[in-house]
Each structure stands twice: as structure tokens, then as C-alpha cells.
Amino acid sequence: MKRSPFLLALASLCIVGGSFFIRTAFSSTSEPKIITDTSRYKEIRNQLWSDNDRVKHFPNQIPTDAKDVRIAYSPEFLQGSTFFQIRLKQPPNKIEKLLSQYRNSAKYKYRGGNTNEHINQLNGVPTTFFYTSDSSTESFPATYEILVLNADDKGRPGFKWNHGDSYGVAISSSASEIIYWSEKW
To answer: Is Signal there in the keyword field (predicted)?
Structure first.
């Protein structure tokens, strides 16, 4: 019985393609990686981040006087969460001006900590983790003021904050740093 080369090629293609899809579906490494390359800042802020209203408080570009710049961006994966954060060291007078500006427009204010601690306070809302930290710590030191510019609960009764978003800044006068952040889950 003579086999058609076309059928053999098609069968091979199906096996290779099927293997790829099975491996991708069950692979734990298929989750998105956190992007930390600061040269991609403008691309993330202006193109990859899907909701520009939640990053309008971020600088349009990295300021020329910024030092020790760090970013952390995790793209949305399936129905998972996404976050974007940029950490900048700025001159002390600029930090004080930004602190005054954002204190006046903040809807919620916290001192140090992380999102899990903030949401569990009386009338608390989710904030962020310290993704751009120099260490593996997830919490902001007490020297940081976490100022929430907005937080939207998109959960349902019995599942408060199951879905939602929040954004704001974390500022440390003593470190002369500002961290712009936005989270969606």
C-alpha cells in the first residue's frame, strides 16, 4: 500500500502542532515574565498598558534628573492581574513638591506596608506591593507614604475586591524617591 507524501506531512504537522499546544497549555513557565528593562518604559506606558487613565499620573518619559530608575511591569495573563510600577530618585525639592501635590489629591493614605495590610484596615483598599524594591521585600518601609489616587471595587456581594483596580504613588522624603504604581486584578 502506497502512502501519500501529503498525508504523511499533514500527520507530522498535526503531531508537532498538537504537542506544542499541549505543552503550552500545561506548562507552568507559560506565565508572563516581569519586565524590568527601563528602556521599555515609554512602550509600556503608552502602548502595552491597556488603560491610560490609570497611568496618566506617571511621567510621560523618565525625567532627565531621575536616578536609580527601576520599573516592574507584569502583562495581563488570561484573567489574571497586571501591575506597572516605576521607581525614581529625584532631587529633594522636587519630591517635596510631588508629595504635597499627591497628598492633596489622594483618596486614601497609608504609611508603609503593602496591599494585604492596607485592604485589611478599617475602610481599607488594595494598593500595591513594593515590586521595585532593592530586596525581596514586598512591603514599603514606614518612611514611605502610599497615596491612593483611585481604587475601584469591581467585585460582587460576598466577594468584595475580587476584581478591581487601584493606582497612586508611594513617596519617601528621606530616600528622595517616588514610586508610581497601577494595579488591575
So the answer is: yes
